[in-house]
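=== Structural record ===
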Amino acid sequence: MTKQASVASLPKVLNGNLTEVALGCQRMLEENPCHPQALVGIALVALASGQSAGAVKMARAAVASAPRMVAAWVALGQALKAAGRNDEAERAYIHATTLDGMNTLARMGLGELRLATNHPHEAIKEFELALSRRPALTAALMGLGNAMAMMGRNEEALAYYERTLAHRPRLPESEFATGFALARLGKLKQAEAHYRRALVLRPDFAAAWINLGSLLREQGREVYAEAALRRAVELRPELISGWVNLAILERERRHPAEAEAHLRRAFALNPEQVETLVAWCQFRAAEHDLAGAWQWLRWALAREPEHAEAVNMHGILLHQEGRFEEAIQIFEQAEVLGHCAAASNRGNSLMDLGRAEEALRAHELAVERDPASPGARYNLSLTRLRLGDWRRGWPGYEARWRFREVHRRPRVFPQPRWQGEPLNGRRILLHAEQGLGDTIQFCRYVSMVEARGGVVLLQVQEPALRLMQSLAAVRAGLAEAALLGSKLAEFDVECPLLSLPAVFGTTVETVPWPGAYLGADPELAAAKLLQFPRQLDSPCAQPRVGVAWAGNPRYKADAQRSVKLATLLPLLRTPGIQWISLQKGPAAEQIVELPSDVQLCDASSRDRDLAETAALISTLDLVITTDTCIAHLAGAIGKPVWILLPHLSDWRWMQRTDATPWYPTARLFRQSAPGDWAGVMEHVIAELNAVRDARLKTVFSTPIARFSRYQSRSSQLSAR
């Protein structure tokens, strides 16, 4: 929450026009230069005008004139606090309490000082003492709410903020604080309403504009977020958090020049502010400039070694460099400092080390500490899915809709989300999300939705549109396939494809497999076979094996799952195989760089869509691929497919198994250590030679028997 300077503990003498107050005090001082009340008044006027040095001077004069005047010592504490001289301010407040132990202003001053120096537990005692004297003191209730918020006790913070609203219904600061607590609790619509009410009451409330802009950004409403943040910096151009939040927005929109310009504005305002230095570090890391990120981080840590966000960022940079053991230690330090996301980040590093059970505990702890965090809930769900706990994993996976790293601008519909109830002829929109592989994997649920009585409208990406015509429900006229984002006829409810496993309660043992649920157009398949005919090798044709080695380069973890074609050279030199490339995109250009002794036919780089690729795959005996949409396509049409996986593979391939319930015709070949593609190649080559020698086609037709062995193993995984 953007912090606001508190004026709640200033004496009532300041209620009114500052100029009039100053003139009145000046007249009193002309009559008596040592008039203590007048000196306190002038000190507070100076303080309210941002002149902390003058305020300290006047307050000291008041104390000298009336050493037992509590208000003078309180004014001195306020002035010293504003000047950043916190130790002296504390002594002034404490001296005031020795004169009057229950003085409300002194207790409030100490409480605010404790908050400013990050000691919320001590602040609580001071605010409670102030309330014991004045039970309806709004500032004390706000202070208690702020202390609870600093400790992450958001429900209690909200309760205090709501009490302030009950006492002062039109106080913009109370509306603002209530909105902040609600946002922390994940109640975004209610939070937005309170921020907007604060702005109605006080249109120049820059901090409320900033928090509203940040909230809108998190919801993917970027145009409105930008407008709110720009209004904030128009009102208060000296407010660093406004420029930093604008930089974050532009960074996420992939506008690096604009983001950098905003960070420069923030840095110029205060080169020493650690939050700005951390924002620079995050920006350089997002631009894949780790050297630059490290430089900004070192500056941040040099200024404040125990800054929780800076320490957490230290762990993130170590993780990005693959230094997982070191990252874990740093994340633990960030957790001690109170960083809520650090436990989840530690879980990610543990998972990269293969310590899955420890990772699970770390992610569970992260959710316990911050139940409203979509990132923590998302990471926990992926870990549960990876370990076979799908009963709890699928419901948690819905957190992706609030997690900006997955859905930066989620689709929003006025129609309700389908929860699995009987549809009774209602029209339901099922829509694709994420990648083409996800669409292929989860379109199998269309027939199950239709069986619940729904008239299905299926929206998918353009490359998959023609392929979807092979779905049984579409062929039978029970479902309609359309382009993702196109204008549709009216529908009653909607559901994303990747939410369907949660709706149907899918477990490892109940993955729907009605047999191959996608198919190839016979005419397209015949054309492909004519275009790329079998090579004869007496006394029989060579086995035809398709290969793909690279997925979508925009995918966050693509560097781990994709390889260069050169990595497959030992495999491509296996004799007696007709090699067919299924690779698409820029990676297909690597084919021309192959040595002359390797023959790989480029058969897919010019495919119009996945329907053509499916037709080609139908003419093959086997597909060997990294984790790409080709793996899903081959599995969905029932073709034998060998999937080459990194040491830490995607959650859907689970752990420690060479088969998958999603595709019974698939085999999984995993790295035994991070980066060990050579070991994977050795394993694949040995298996390929073995099955070729045992009559390749016969062996490829027996994967279902292997899957029964997988089922017993997966049951053990899910029971842990």
